[in-house]
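Re-running V-set and immunoglobulin domain-containing protein 10-like 2 to confirm reproducibility after the cluster update. Everything else is unchanged from the original entry.
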Amino acid sequence: MERGRAPPPPWRGPWILCLLPALAGGQPLAAGEAAYEEWRATGVRGRAVELSCGPAAAAPPAVVFWSFTPQGEGLPRAVAVGSGREVAVAPGARLLGRVTLRNGTLELRELRVFAQGRFLCQGLFPERGRLRVGYAAVLLRVLVPVSKPFVRPTAAAAAEGAAVALTCSVREGTEPLSFSWQHQEPRGGPSVTPAGLGDSRAELRLTPANRSHTGWYICTVHNEVNNQTSDPIYLDIVYGPDEPAIRVEPFSPEQGGFSAGEREDVVLSCLAPSNPPSRYVWLHNGSQVHVGQTYAITAIARAQAGTYTCLAENSHLQTRTQATIVLTVYYPPAGSPSCSALASEDQRDVALRCRWLGGFPLARLRWVGPQEEEEEEEGLMGSSFSMATRIQSGAATRNGSSFSCLASHPALPLGAACGTTLWVPSGSPTCAAAATKGDEYVMLRCRWEGGTPLVTLRWRDAAGRTLGDPAASTAVLVLSTDGSLGGREFVCVAAHPLRAAAAECRLRLGKPDPSPPPVPRRVGTSLPEPSPPCRRVEVPELEAESEVAVLEGGEAQLACRQRGSGAGLGAALAWYDPKEREVTPGPAKYRLEQGEAWVNLTVRDAEWPGDSGIYRCTATNAVGTASLPVRLRVDRESRDGRQGWAGGIEPLPAGCRLSAGYPAPPNVTISKLRYTRARTEVRLEWRTQGAGNLTGFVVQRRQTKKPLREPPSPWETAAGDIEPHSRDRRLGGLDPAVLYAFRVLAVNHRTAGHPSEVQTPAEPPFEAYPAVTGAAVAGMLVATAASLLAVHCLARHRDALPRLHDLLFRT
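Result of re-run:
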């Protein structure tokens, strides 16, 4: 409070002077000595303030009267009056707050803003046995605390570069007010005052706004009473997208882009700063392949090479940016490098060739010989792409030397290799002659297989003239049999780069001319080595059994083979039937099996007497033709215990005649043949016709329903140990999807009778009566059980169905 002397107020009137003597109780009043004081006081709304009447050290007034004049008004209003303990508060004083008067001091609790104004205290103060009149004026100022501020931006989201302002407002608060701002990053962190904007203004201007201004903003308001802080408000600065940055993993940069190996996993990542975050789209050679920031390519293929574009889009600003890279996919050639060695320079040198075509980039190849250092740097002398050739001198190369072709490629960290070993085959060349059918041409064949490179063979005549073209490993010379080949000699010369001297073999056709004795080689002389002896070409010789016997229905095997010196001539072998027709493969009746010097003829399902007769085996070469007859006899019953009854006979020695055997057993007739229900078994019954001795029965089966061009299946034994008194048998092991045919034969020791007629099994009878009966009984049992349960339920729950209960249980 501020106190001071002042003249009596102009509104002091006689009404107060009339009142004070009455309150004084008859004590003398010193009116002329009235004092006046004036001071200032400050209060806060909602709090309490005390206004004293006179100095604090003075005695309290005997009588006091308080009045109030609001700020800006001229008429005073009574507030309270008191004398001692008697106090009266004016009814309108509640506008000032909660008013109490004690010992002349006016206390205002829960102070209101309306209490701001002039309070006047008029009192009678006892002093030396008299009453002194005193006046005190208090100028009360009511302060209002600052309310909680709130921040209002011009826009919740603004584009980068635009002007943005944030305004901090309060509903109430006594001025002067001061403002302070705090900024916090979007993802947390300490609050800082924006650089250059930390003044005390109520408006925060961000001109122009940038992406660093994104975040939370807080405003704090101060006055002399208090300070309040607003709730944080988020300001979103929209920007971007910036130019994308593409990252490739694994990181393998090269000039103009990136590279990766085929079948390698490649991950492409794109980053373009943007708010809101960018939407990423990946393009491969202009076509969309993925949506998302990361594009993973599993086991990349060569077709996935090319340009990859990352397209970043800001959906709020409708802006786009993009970046493009070139991705090269390296892939090695297919397979592995191949190495070969060929003779060159007229058999003096060896051309080592390494080949590995394809791939990207081309594979680098280089040859490495024995005891040569393997350098690993690229760009070596002697290396080339896709194909590499090295000429190796044969004279300077040892037999068994190995050479390697090393291949390097960016997609193969360990590279690849192939190799070859140069060697000369052991031994010497071999000569042989072969003739075509009909004695039209003679083929001279020279062989010397093996070696790297292969041996080169040439045919020459006795005069040294070259015949035909040189060939590797095998040289064939075809000559026309015009009658001038008899006695002529031919030489096969073999050459190899690693062999200093050539090797040869000789062949003489027809009868050999007398040749001079071989010249022995002497030690220390340069005489030539003796030539190998010439081979002769002979008429083919054949061998075969003179007679073959078979039971009717069996298979007869006629074997014929070539022997002697003419076997190497390559004669044409053939069989002729009893009608002098050449047997060819294909018909169901015959089967031919042929090798280089043999041919076998099989006669299926031999018939009596149609297949009996003389069969002829022939062999033809350049010298002549040989023929050998073989008799085939088909018997209806066996005459010798050495023959078999199960579809064939045992071979007999040449020139052997059959003697009398066991008598034929009786014929057999099938009386019943039926499938079981599962079609995996059959029930077979038969009976015999006529008299005859027998020791057992044999049941045979085979498949039916073969294609038209396919011969029927051979008979196979289904049961062969049936006692002579048995007339039925149950046979299993059948395939339900296959239709079978059966027949029965009676056997007398090793003599088989005529087979029965062929029958197929009948379908099993329909046996539904047991199933139908069982289903009916089961249904009756189920119905009876359900009826009993229903009756039991009605008996226990009478109230639920009373009528039905009375109907059933009335009696």
